[in-house]
Amino acid sequence: MIETFGIFIALAFSFFPTQAPIIEPAKSEPQISIPRISLDDSYTAQSVLLFNFNTNARIVEHSQNKVLPIASITKIMTGYLALTNLLPESKIQMSIESIETAGAIGHFKSGEIFSFNDLLEAMMTASSNDAAMAFAERVGTMRGGKSFDESIQIFVDLMNETAKNLGMYNTHFINPTGLDTLEHTPSNYSTAEDLSLLLKATRKDTPTIWELSRSTDKTIYSDRKIRHDFFNINTLAPRILHFIGGKTGSTDTARESVVELFEAPFGTEYGLVLLGADPEGKRFEEALRIINQLSPVLP
Question: Has this prediction a pTM greater than 0.90?
Fold first, then answer.
């Protein structure tokens, strides 16, 4: 009886065939057209990388993995470590050793005390070596340095450790400024590819560094009410629409370099790293030609 009933049930269900599940065809992702810019032989830069911050799409790639001296582009790492190790309300004192660093931008005096942001702005716009050394000394001392030299070495070690942590495996620092160590002997090395990783880290973690690189000129005062005037070496700062920030670098051995961050159009962020251009303004001329193909540049 049970067996007969089971057969009946099976026959009953055979009249109602089950419908196979409908499988929706996979929807393809929309294809986004990525503009590509090629550099002709008129460009003197030894390495160029232009990338989209959000998608990492590459607009220009030219010897982006070539290891080159980076001069004061170094100060982006110096500022990054200052911002991630010191409180924004910190006061920074200039030591005699810091102001004896090559370059007299700002004409600081030993013992003067400055606000964190004022000194960072002097470093990012006018590329003050004194300011870079003062930040390095302060962070190194906070981390256990007992003398100026020891504090600077601690900071440099931190620069290299941070570079490694960011994946900047072709980067090496020996000072916080980017100054040549000896005549015709570069100091710090990196690649445009590695520097793109640093730009992404600073944009995410320390956007203040770029905000303070925008002004065309700046006057700051120390605790002694001594006036110090600076101007922005980056001549493109007032000309790039939706400018986020930038940094220059130049020594005899490194030639001339520049980093520019901008939006084109507004809301779409790009980073441009241009290293080792011929002197006498070629870095700005060549950066301008590249940026102008994505975003209008003011005359």
Answer: no
